[in-house]
Amino acid sequence: MKPAMNEVTPDQLKRAVESQHGCTAMLIQAVPVKEVFAGKTVWEGIVHVFKIHGHPQASQAYAWSSPIEGSDKRRFFAVLHQPPITSPANAVRAAIVAQQRPK
């Protein structure tokens, strides 16, 4: 099954997890997530959950991608399952908050 036009494959997300966190990853599930803030949807998509091996502090990671505004490229997110990030929705929320912080 091919991904939708601007989607990425689970294998691309697997490679993102492995390269960003220096471990091996195996897809275990894909979870739909809709993040709403102040009554508006700020992100909606599929978060892939990976079992990871070889990382010293985490046994799972969450991965997804989003389009980069003003570009045809995508940004890859690979967030470790470590408290307070204990679900796909928590991972998306943490990434949104991190992007809003001044650089």
In brief:
The protein has 103 residues and is an alpha+beta fold. The chain has helices at 10-21, 88-100; strands at 24-37, 40-53, 60-67, 74-80.
Describe this structure in words.
With 103 residues, the protein is an alpha+beta fold. It has one domain. It is 24% helix and 42% strand. The chain has helices at 10-21, 88-100; strands at residues 24-37, 40-53, 60-67, 74-80. Strands 1-2-3-4 form a four-stranded antiparallel sheet, with helices on both faces. Strand 2 and strand 3 form a beta hairpin. The protein is globular. The N and C termini lie far apart (39 Å).
List keywords for this structure.
about 100 residues; globular; 4-stranded antiparallel beta sheet; 2 helices; disordered N terminus; alpha+beta
Count of DSSP strands: 4
Shape: globular
Strand content: 35-45%
Main sheet specs: 4 strands, antiparallel
Major sheet strand order: 1-2-3-4
Mean pLDDT: 90
Helicity level: 10-25%
Structural class: alpha+beta
The separation of the N and C termini measures 39 Å
Order of helices and strands: HEEEEH
Poorly predicted sequence stretches spanning 5 or more consecutive residues: 1-5
Count the helices. How many?
2
Q: Give the total of domains.
A: 1
What's the Cα radius of gyration? 13 Å
